[in-house]
Amino acid sequence: MGLRATKAATLQVWLLLITLLPGLLSSCATNTQIAGNSKARGYTAEKAMVVSAHPEASRVGMQIMEQGGNAYDAAVATQFALAVALPVAGNIGGGGFMVYRSASGQTGALDYRETAPVAASETMYQDSAGNVVDGLSTDGHLAVGVPGSVDGMVKLHQKLGSLPWAALVQPAIDLARNGVVLTQKEADGLNSSREAFISNNKHMPYLVRSRPWQPGDTLRHPDLARTLERIRDKGREGFYAGETADLLVKEMKRGGGIISTQDLADYTSVWRQAVEGTYKDYKVISMPPPSSGGIALLQLLTMVEPYNLHKYGWQSAEAVQVMTEAERRVYADRAQYLGDPDFVQVPAQQLLDKDYLKARMRTMSLAQATPSEVVKAGELQVHESDQTTHFSIVDPAGNAVSITTTLNGAYGSKVVVEGAGFLLNNEMDDFSAKPGVPNMFGLVGGKANAIQPHKRMLSSMTPTILEKNGKLYMVVGTPGGSTIITSVFQTVLNVLEHDMTMQQAVAAPRFHHQWLPDELQHEQTALAAEVRATLTSKGYKLEPRGRYGRVDAILVLPDGTLEAGADPRGDDAAAGF
Fold first, then answer.
1. Which residues fall within 8 angstroms of residue 145, CB to CB, at 6 or more apart?
2. Domain-located, residue 189
3. What is the count of structural domains for the chain?
4. How far is the C-alpha of 550 from the C-alpha of 572, rounded, in Å?
5. Helical H runs in 134-183?
6. Does the active-site annotation cover 483?
7. pLDDT tens sequence across 107-149
8. Catalytic residue among 19, 388, 404, 486
9. pTM of this prediction?
């Protein structure tokens, strides 16, 4: 790309950061201000856009499309760039999910979720008395699932890519060698994880240094650059075989992990059929199991559709109560029925049946809360993460990609593969270590999500695309562990029911209920004082929490212009042309 284009791209990113200021202010404003008539829009572009958790990754994706690449090429390049620029969640040592919609309306989903190693077992995180051992599934080498990100990107490129593979990996190599300037959030994250990096590695990881990281410092990744070069030159074999695989397996043996050379050789990502449904005049396209996100989102939208949320008003007591009661019932179903469809029968059709969902809401009363202890999974006739990152892409032809990818917890297991320079996930915690025992996000799982060799752990990731009148309308998703589903749910409704711009919708403060624990969690400014008082009087236990989720979304405006929603909770940024 020429110098002029490079300068233009840089200017676009800085312009976006300026446009985020109203979003930052609005996220701290009162409910009336958020839901008012202000129509401040986010960054807009005419032809193509990338919205991701880091300006450098968004820039890389945009440049790929400027060079003639499509949305799928840009997705591959952005995934690898995030592995460098956002080590807290971007990865090659984790996995993820992709939903796509082609310009012609074809849809699909790619599952590159991690899998359990062949040596994994249902009780591997329990002691001899059957008690779950704290930290065993979250910290260190035993918490690691077989990574899927590289295989996923290879599969995506083989099926839908257009530019040469090497051209898509090279920008991440350049970032790794030249380094990335740390923001305040990134410096704070590395510093707060310093002791965890030291205690969970048998060597001193390069992410640790003697003095604290400061914003403005440059973090370079020389070992990761060499690993990415092997991926550039050898594709899948550059990660799952040869030197990189040897380094990973050696790291496992060093720390008591169980991933083997055979586990790496056997891993394969899977193309799946996207789960689809409707909300009023909109078509919703989302991720199927082993993500619970798509089914849960469609359940939620179907449950609240009969209620006049627009008339109730944004974050009114009535709207919050209807949405909370739907969330309570959906998360109960999630715990009972959802898991890896290659191992358990997931009753997707029954879970999405409109009559079933209508019946689930009949036990709701606007007069009072429904205690979670009396809410069980629905009766069906069947047989038996917070640090993630999301990016949304639309290319000039109208192809759209929604990808959520993760290491699970912040910096995953905290294990850095010595000599290879990348972090490993702690996705094994997303299995049910024991039925009925919550994971790090407080989510309770059942037998359907028990640990088995080669099985994919259940996820809440909800990459989603919406159509309106048969045309692309919205691309959306977020990190946030168990809050992912409800964050996407609220963002969609903010636009469809409360007439927000895309930027307003992602910046608006959020609330969350996940059945267990029985509490309505909310960001500090999400609920007005009178709303809190009303909900408390009806029996809701309100639990304030810090800001969560980093929604990155794109809205297609009536004239075809693309509007970004880049979440001010993080360093998220859009780039486009």
1. 95, 114, 115, 116, 117, 425, 427, 428, 457
2. no
3. 1
4. 8
5. 149-160, 165-178
6. no
7. 999 999 999 999 999 999 999 999 989 999 999 999 999 999 9
8. 388
9. 0.91
